[in-house]
Amino acid sequence: MDANFLLFAVGVQFFLSAIVAAAVADDKNLSGIGFFFLGLLFLGPFAIAVAILATPGAPRPPLPPSPVQRVRQRSTISDSAPGISVKVVAPGDDHEGQIGTMYEVPRR
Questions:
Q1: 46-53 and 3-27 helices cross at what angle (nearest 10)?
Q2: Which residues pair with 103 in a beta bridge?
Q3: Would you list the domain boundaries of the chain?
């Protein structure tokens, strides 16, 4: 067997093992990037076992609402005052920067 092929095969094995270790670590709320480089540079296939045996990390805090979610929460017609026009502009989606539909709440 050629030495270059053997080196290539070991490199591919370390790379694939690093990807699997990162995925396992990320599922356990651990650093996926850290386990990727640990497996790629040092442990190779043993990084998978280390990621499986590691104790799970603390749960991640929930993400804050995105700007689009905040605009949608604020721009509902039922929440607006009677007779006030509500301009709906959703930043971050396909219509960012465009003027949305204007609604007028009927007075009662």
A1: 10
A2: 86
A3: 3-53, 67-104
